[in-house]
Structure formats: C-alpha cells, structure tokens
Amino acid sequence: MTHLLELRDVTKSFGGIHAVNAVTLHVDKGEIVSVIGPNGAGKTTLFNLISGVLPLTSGSISIEGRDLAGVAPHRYVQLGIGRTFQNLALFKHGTVVDNILVGRHWRMKTSVIEAALHFGRPRREEVAARRRVEEIIEFLEIEHIRDKVVGTLSYGQQKRVELGRALATDPKVLLLDEIVAGMNQEETEDIARFILDIREELGIAILLIEHDMHLVMDISDRVHVLNFGSTITEGRPAEVRSHPGVIEAYLGTKAARAAGGAAMAVEGGAR
C-alpha cells in the first residue's frame, strides 16, 4: 500500500546525538495524525526533516510513493507538503491578504517581462490567486481583518493567518507545528473546528505536533509518541494515553505516574 506521506527509519544526528532516531510513521488520505512527546523529544526536528528544512542523516521520506531524496527543499510545496511554524513566520508589515497571497507564489508561471506588462497570463494568474485567497479568508472566518496589517493583530488572529497561508499552497498533507500554543480556550476550540473542516471539506490530511492533550485526543485518528528522538508507541488515542511508556515519558517517576497518570491522559496535564 502506498501511503500519502511515509517515513521509514528516519534519523537525524547532530554531532553524534540522535535528535530523531529511526522513526517510522505514515499519514494516509483523510487522516489526522498527531505527534506528541515531552519538550526536546524531537518533534519539530522531525517536521523540519519532512519539510526539507534539514537533510536526513539516514532513512527515507516519501509522498505518494515519491522519495524526496534529491528533491530541492523549495520543490516540496509542489509535491503537496505545506506547514505552519511553531514560531510565527509572517510578514508583520503586510496585510492579511498579502501574507496569504505568498502561499500562491509557487503557482505563478509568469516571466519577468510578462509581469512587467501585466497583461494576459500575469493578469489571469493574479485574478485566480486572489480568488483563492478570498475563499481561504472566508473559510477561516477572517473577512473582517482581511485588510489589516498583520503586526497589529492578536496572536490568535496571526496564527489563523499563518494557517491560511499554508492552505494557500494547496497541500495534500498539512504539517501543523503547535498551532494552538499560546491560545485561549475559545481560540483553541476554533482551530480544532478548522482542522476538522480542513480534513472533511478540503480533503487535506493533517500531521499535527501538539502539547494540548485535550485537542490531540479529541481530533486525532492516530497518535505517534516520541521521547528522546525515538518512538515509544503509536495507536488510537485511547490506546496511547494509557500506555505505561507514555505516562513515564511525561511524568517521570513511578510515584508521579501513580499519582497523576490518569490526569495527564484525560485532563491534558501535559501542556
């Protein structure tokens, strides 16, 4: 079976230290898969490998059966990999529309001369790009801030803009790196709804890094757990949250596990 996104024995070493160690996981069409683990478990490094920010030490990553070895990082988006970042990476002096339009750049085929003339294909491409951006703005319910400068927006609104920019790349699989970090309960619930809608209405698979256990357990089809760069377990949320290795990774000692394991799994104490 060919998976939409597949990692096989993926390893990344820095000076002999394995930040990611022989990780194997996959995401299929229509799935929401979460990657969890304590701080320093290797989650963001894993995302940086999948999106081409870092080169592999060993192992392989493929999308729809195509091995990404030898593919230039800026070509990953053309193959269907989109992402958001743990730390916002927006153009703070640009408007919401301008920032989301950046996600359409890879689709522009216009030459410099054509762009200067701004007639024919350049005009058609710009109209199509702006139409798609307006669809995304409506989807994310941010019409009221579409012309606002991003730097003047709240943190939660900026996170939504970054999500919009990632959607503008037309991804097949979307990597969300702590998308609700720093958000209040209402903002988190909104993002959870959008993630489900992205899967159901847009047909985009999701690979999610998150510390909010409520969110992970509520929306994930499968959960993959890392600690010190290695896989502890993978499975359905109900299976993962009761796994002894997961409880130990988050809570440490046997005494802590006995006292707080259930609270971590059910109440999201691993934030």
Automatic annotation (TrEMBL):
Keywords: ATP-binding, Nucleotide-binding, Transport. GO terms for cellular component: plasma membrane. It comes from the Bacteria. Pfam families: ABC_tran, BCA_ABC_TP_C. InterPro entries: AAA+_ATPase, ABC_AA/LPS_Transport, ABC_transporter-like_ATP-bd, ABC_transporter-like_CS, BCA_ABC_TP_C, P-loop_NTPase. GO terms for molecular function: ATP binding; ATP hydrolysis activity. Residues 5-253 form the ABC transporter domain. This is ABC transporter ATP-binding protein. It comes from Seohaeicola zhoushanensis. The lineage of its organism: Bacteria, Pseudomonadati, Pseudomonadota, Alphaproteobacteria, Rhodobacterales.
